[in-house]
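Retry 2 of 3 after timeout on previous attempt. Resubmitting structure tokens to design endpoint.
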């Protein structure tokens, strides 16, 4: 079996045994998706980059203690969620620039920090209406309570099944289901209010 055919769990085990190239393969497999998740979860690219590095450092340090009966990807996202929560707690204690502030004080074109949070996987040729709708969706999600944001991001942006979300968030399966139900209802109500639809 080649390194590219090996499972994530096998790569981590072989990395813990000191075999070269295994950790880099894991990073290459998961870094992009994890980064996109962290941009949405942590609220910006700089924070996402920091947490991404901390997450993979923790994976490296904890490789030998990984439980081989678990699956790697939910474990990876669990570490990332915990690192992001830690970073957000620290950030909450420090004054920060509002997301509605302009990027530069003397700028008059109206670019705000919140505009930079647009999902990076969109095409620049999309119509303006789609861009505005994406901004509305992002604004609504950012204004939701953290526990509802988390479950929405994991379910709809990253398509995790309930069981994986429960593992990542460290809550029972029933809690994930009820949070997701509440998050969808809250989002729908806020979206209707924001867009004036009924």
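Retry 2 succeeded. Sequence:
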């Amino acid at each position: 079996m080649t390194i590219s055919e090996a499972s994530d769990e096998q790569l981590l085990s072989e990395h813990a045994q000191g075999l070269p190239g295994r950790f880099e393969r894991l990073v290459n497999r998961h870094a992009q998706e994890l980064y996109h998740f962290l941009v949405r979860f942590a609220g910006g690219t700089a924070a996402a980059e920091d947490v991404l590095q901390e997450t993979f450092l923790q994976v490296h340090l904890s490789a030998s203690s990984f439980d081989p009966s678990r699956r790697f990807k939910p474990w990876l996202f669990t570490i990332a969620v915990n690192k992001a929560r830690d970073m957000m707690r620290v950030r909450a204690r420090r004054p920060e620039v509002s997301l509605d502030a302009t990027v530069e004080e003397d700028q008059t074109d109206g670019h705000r920090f919140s505009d930079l949070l647009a999902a990076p996987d969109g095409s620049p040729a999309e119509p303006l209406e789609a861009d505005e709708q994406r901004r509305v969706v992002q604004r609504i999600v950012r204004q939701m309570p953290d526990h509802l944001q988390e479950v929405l991001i994991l379910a709809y942006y990253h398509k995790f099944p309930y069981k994986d979300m429960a593992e990542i968030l460290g809550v029972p399966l029933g809690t994930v289901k009820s949070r997701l139900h509440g998050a969808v209802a809250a989002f729908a109500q806020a979206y209707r209010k924001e867009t004036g639809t009924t």
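Attempt log closed. The chain has two domains: 1-96, 120-198.
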